[in-house]
Structure formats: C-alpha cells, structure tokens
Design goal:
By secondary structure, the chain is mainly alpha-helical. Helices cover about 70% and strands about 5% of the residues. The chain contains 17 helices and six strands. The strands form two sheets. Strands 1-2-3-4 form a four-stranded parallel sheet, with helices on one face. The chain has a two-stranded antiparallel ribbon with strand order 5-6. About 25% of the residues are buried.
Length: about 675
C-alpha cells in the first residue's frame, strides 16, 4: 500500500477471505510483490500484516509458515490480525513466539484496533483504522500499464538493439542480411514511447486519483523504482529508436539508391541494347518521297519507344539530384557516377535519334526537290516533243519566252537539287562509326551512290532538254525570220502596188514646156528606181523564205502567191512606166520642136523653109494626143488609164493650144511668101 513501519520498512498486507486460498497463487503473488522494491528497501525488512479476520486459523498458520519459505530474510515482523474471539482456544496449541528462532521472524496476534501499537495510523489503511489513502484497483491498473510498458519496452529495446548492432557490425552483406531479418520491430516504437511518457506523467504527479484534491502517497514512488525505471527505459528507447531511425534512414537511402541503380541499369541496358539495335537496323534514306516518309514514320515509332525511357531518365535524374543535395559524402561519388553514366548514354542516344531524324528530313527534302525537277523536265520534254505550228511571229515569241522560262526553272531546280544533295552527302559523311555502334561504310556507300545517281540522272536529262531547247530555239527563230520575211515581202508588194497606183493616178502631167517635161522625166526615172529597189527587196525576201522553208522542211503559206503577185505588179508597173516614159519623151520632143519654132525670129525665115518641120511637129502632137486617149494594156489583157478623163483632157488641151500656136506660126510664115510675087 506504500505504508511503512517504524523502521521505514515496507508494510506487506495479505488479506485473506472466506474462500479457499491457493497457496501456489499466493506464493507467486508474494514473489511478484517482493520483486518490486529495491535492494536497499528490502534491506530494511518487511512488516507483514496477515488479515485473518475473514479466514480460518489453519489458513492463517499455513500462510505464516509459507512466509518462512518465501521471504524469511526480509520479514522482520508478522502481524496476524485475528478475529475478536474465534482463535483464543487454538493459540495455546501453537505459539508463534516460541517458533521465532525456527521461523526467522516475530509473529504476533493482534486485534485490528490494537494494530496501531506497532504501526503508525498514518501508515495503515482505513481497513485497519488508519488514514493512509489507498485504491487497490487504481494501483493495479497503473501496475498493469507499467508492466506492459516494461515488457514491451524491454522487448523493443532488445529488437532495436539487435537491429542497430546488426547494422554496425560485420560486413556489408551481413548487415544487410541482419537488417532484412529484423528490420520491422514487433511493436510500434512511437506507441510504446507515448505510453511511457503518459505513464511517467502519471508517476510524476504522485497521485492515484486525486479525489481529495491533495497529493496522496504513491506506492510506486522512487523507492519502488517505478519512475526511475520508466525514465531509464524511455531514455534507452529514445536512444535506440534514434539509432533505429538512422538505420531505417540509411536502409531507406540504400534501398532508394539500389532502386535508382537498378532503374539506371534498366535504362542503360535498354538504350545500349534494344534501342541501339533499332537504330542499327535503320540506316537507309529511301529512294523516293514515299519511301522516305515510311522511314520517317518508322523512326517516329522508335522515338516514341525512346521517349518512355527518356521520361524515366528525367525522373531518375531528379531523384539523383535530390539525393546529391541531401546525401552523405560517402554516396556522392556513386551517385555522380550513376548520373554521369545515365546522362552519357541518354545524350548519346538522343543525339543519334536527332541525327537520324535530320538525315531522314534532309533525304525527304532531296527526294521532294528531285521529284519536282523530274516533273519540270517531263513538262519541258513534252513541250519540246510537240511540233510547233504557230499562227504568227507573236505566238512564236510567246512560245519561245515560255520555253526559256521553263528552262530557267529547270536550272534553278537542278541547282536546288545539287544543294540539297550536297547537304545530305555532308550529313552522311559526318556519320561516324560510333553513331550506331558499328561500321556503316557499306550502308553509306549505297546512300551516296543513290544520291549521286539521282543528281547525275537529272543532269543528263537536263542536258538533253537543253540540247533540244537549242534546236527548238533555232527553229523558232528561223520561223520568226520566215514570218518576218513573208510579212516584209507582202509589204513590198503593197508598196509596189501603191507606187503603181501613184504612177497611174498622180503621174499624169506632161509639162508645159520642154524643160518642165525633162524634169518630170528625171523624176520619173528616180521614181522607177525606187520601185526597182522595192521589187528587188521583195525578191530577196521571197528567196530568203524559200531557203528558210527548206531549212524548216515546211511549205510557206504565203510565199506561194506572194511571188506571182510581186511579179504581176512589177510587170504592170514596168508597162505603165514604159508608157509614161514614152509619153514624156514624146512630150519632150514635141515641146522642144514647138518651142524652137515659136522662139525663132521672123527675120530668119530661112529657118522655116522646110515645111516638114511643121508637119513633124503636128504629127508628134497628134501622136501624143492619141496616146493620151489610149489605155495601158497589161500582159494579162487588163487595161488602165492614167489619171481621170478630165486630167487627160486638160493635158490634151494644153498640147492642142501649143499645136495651134505652131499652126498660127506656120500661117504667119506662109503669108509673106504669098504676097511677094504680087509685089
């Protein structure tokens, strides 16, 4: 109960009841209770109160004798609380004081009301008339909590010590095996610590229930080792638990490190194994746009598979960075090595993927340009294979311009193909043997041969088209020249016709005198020279058309009737010109003779003796008048008059007037001849 005798020895109370008391259980209980106090407290001895008021004498005697075997050295006094009258006759048969030497302790029989003679009332509970407050159920509950805490904490300490000591001793492999076997304690350390702290708080309050509002005497005070033992266990638990947490942290870190290392090796092994093998099998660039696109699609599938592992790499890199920031120095080297290995492999694989993607993109662009150029060459070739049948020179010029534009576009396309091809060849040449982990010379040679073959083929096709364009250009230029010659020849015919028309309509004057007529004759000769040049120019143009037609192996559409037209107009012009010349020459002769007679002085009549001169002038004048009335007859039988009838009448009238003057002159000269004989 926590009560003490006058020697400061603890008081052990054994309440007996009417029911049969099991001595074995009582012995075990006494052993347990006597194990609670400290050795120092035990040295002061015990005072045992055997409450036999509700029991039989035989039971009491058996209990007292049992104390000899259980606690003979520690018991100094046994107080048997007797009933008031029941045991008086039996005491004479067995006197405990006579057995003191044999028992080892003093036994007294005492009534409950006289127990205060041996023990202070404040050290006795209310059952024996004392004032000591004691609640057995409260003590029992606390004791159970204490026992449970002690048992659990002791077991937990052993487990933690085994775990902690196993992590400190032996090889790394032994430590890991020890930790694996005893890694998880049987109870939660946090729960045990919380229970211990609550128990310690109860003990430090030194109260059981606090019903009286004061501090009661605790039977589990320092002398009973409860509080010191709890504190010691808590300290040990905290120490071992701290070490255990460190072990767990180290184990967790090691486990995390091993998991990271395992994942790193998974990433590395896949990238260097199946990932690299996928790239090794993909070395071609395709021979067309469709083939390159198929290879790009296959490469995208490979990139998709790599992306999953690159995502793992990013996660692992973040975990490693976090461990490097919070890790111990002993792990830094290993972590950095893992990080470096992972980064090297991932960056190398990413570079290979990027190189492959760029190569396929360059190949796709190369084949795209090659296809466009091939289509341009096909279009140009188709245009060259169609025979030229233009309507005029303007359409030929337009066709020639279109042809030149297509050829220029082909030149630009071929230049772009060379640039794309050279760029692709440069990328292939930069592909080192480490790119896919093997020698790629053979594969590269096939790619290089294909690229160079495409460029050479396009160059040959372009050269053939250029040759055909040169031939077509020459032919079209000849056709332009042919059309020009035909147009100019037709123009020459028109000019000559205009000259003929001008000759007939405007060249009608014969002059008023010989001088003017000579001037007209000279102008007419120059006019004829112009017509002759026009005719010769037309003939030359028509001869050129014949040569061009022979070169082009075609028949001219206009020169066939242009030449007859030119000859016909020229013949008409020639006949008309000759007629004009004949009339002008006749007019010159007429005017010259008439003017000679008219200008002669009358004092020289001998000049007019010959009548033939007048007759000749008259004959010339009549002949000229006759010619003015006669049309020009062309070789084809057609006729054409000079000028209008009024024009011809005016010219004829002028000639008649001069003929009248000549006739008058003739008469004047004849009158003197008639009067001379009469005189």
């Amino acid at each position: 109960t926590g009560g003490k005798d006058r020697r400061s020895g603890l008081i052990l109370t054994i309440p007996l009841c009417l029911e049969q008391t099991s001595m074995d259980e009582l012995s075990v209980t006494l052993d347990y209770l006597l194990s609670i106090p400290s050795e120092k407290c035990k040295a002061r001895g015990f005072t045992v109160i055997v409450d036999g008021r509700k029991s039989q004498w035989n039971v009491v005697k058996t209990v007292v004798l049992m104390l000899q075997n259980v606690v003979p050295a520690e018991v100094s006094l046994v107080c048997v609380v007797k009933p008031d009258e029941f045991w008086d006759k039996k005491v004479t048969h067995f006197c405990f004081w006579k057995e003191k030497d044999r028992l080892g302790f003093e036994v007294i029989l005492v009534s409950a009301n006289k127990l205060t003679r041996y023990i202070e009332p404040c050290q006795l509970t209310e059952d024996f008339g004392g004032t000591l407050t004691y609640d057995h159920m409260d003590w029992l509950n606390k004791r159970l909590v204490f026992e449970k805490f002690t048992k659990e904490s002791t077991s937990l300490l052993d487990e933690l010590a085994l775990i902690n000591n196993g992590s400190d001793k032996g090889t790394q492999q032994e430590r890991e095996r020890s930790i694996d076997l005893n890694f998880l304690p049987s109870v939660d350390p946090e729960t045990v610590l919380q229970t211990g702290h609550e128990l310690l708080s109860e003990l430090q309050q030194r109260r059981f229930n606090g019903s009286d509002g004061g501090v009661s005497w605790s039977p589990m005070d320092d002398e009973l080792l409860a509080q010191p033992q709890v504190m010691k266990l808590l300290d040990s638990l905290r120490e071992q638990y701290t070490r255990y947490q460190e072990v767990c942290r180290q184990r967790s870190k090691r486990t995390q490190l091993e998991e990271i290392q395992q994942k790193v090796m998974q990433v590395v092994n896949w990238l260097e194994g199946p990932g690299s093998e996928q790239l090794r099998t993909q070395w071609g660039i395709g021979d067309s746009i469709r083939a390159s696109q198929a290879l790009q699609q296959k490469h995208e599938e490979i990139e998709s598979q790599h992306s999953e592992w690159f995502a793992v790499y990013v996660e692992l890199n973040q975990q490693i960075a976090a461990l490097l920031n919070a890790g111990d120095e002993e792990d830094l080297v290993e972590l950095k090595a893992l990080q470096q290995q992972l980064s090297d492999v991932c960056y190398r694989q990413a570079s290979q993927l990027e190189f492959r993607q760029n190569l396929l993109q360059a190949a796709l662009e190369f084949h795209s340009v090659a296809q466009d150029l091939s289509q341009q060459l096909d279009g140009l070739l188709g245009m060259l294979c169609v025979d030229v049948a233009p309507a005029d020179g303007a359409s030929i010029q337009q066709t020639l311009k279109l042809l030149e534009e297509k050829l220029k576009s082909v030149d630009l396309g071929l230049q772009g193909l060379r640039e794309k091809g050279q760029s692709l060849l440069d990328q292939i040449s930069n592909q080192a043997s480490w790119a896919y982990g093997k020698d790629v010379t053979i594969e590269n040679k096939e790619n290089v041969d294909h690229i160079q073959g495409v460029m050479e083929d396009m160059q040959l096709r372009k050269q053939r088209c250029e040759d055909m364009v040169d031939v077509r250009r020459l032919k079209m230029l000849q056709m332009v020249q042919l059309f020009k010659c035909e147009e100019d020849a037709a123009q020459a015919v028109e000019w000559l016709s205009e000259l003929l028309d001008a000759l007939l309509k405007t060249h009608i004057r014969l002059g008023d005198d010989a001088q003017e007529t000579k001037v007209l004759l000279e102008k007419h000769r120059k006019f004829v020279d112009v017509a002759q040049s026009t005719y010769d120019y037309g003939r030359q143009l028509l001869q050129a058309t014949v040569v061009l037609c022979q070169s082009l192996r075609c028949t001219s559409r206009s020169s066939g009737d242009t030449l007859p037209r030119l000859n016909r107009v020229w013949k008409q012009f020639t006949v008309t010109s000759e007629e004009r010349v004949h009339r002008l020459e006749t007019a010159v002769a007429f005017h010259s003779a008439a003017e000679k007679i008219l200008q002669e002085c009358p004092e020289q009549p001998e000049a007019f003796n010959e009548v033939e001169q007048f007759d000749e002038i008259e004959a010339v004048g009549k002949s000229l008048l006759d010619r003015l009335t006669v049309p020009v007859v062309y070789p084809d039988g057609s006729e054409q008059y000079f000028g209008s009838p009024s024009d011809m009448a005016s010219a004829a009238e002028h000639i008649r007037e001069k003929m009248k003057l000549v006739s008058l002159k003739k008469q004047q000269l004849r009158q003197p001849e008639a009067t001379t004989p009469e005189s």
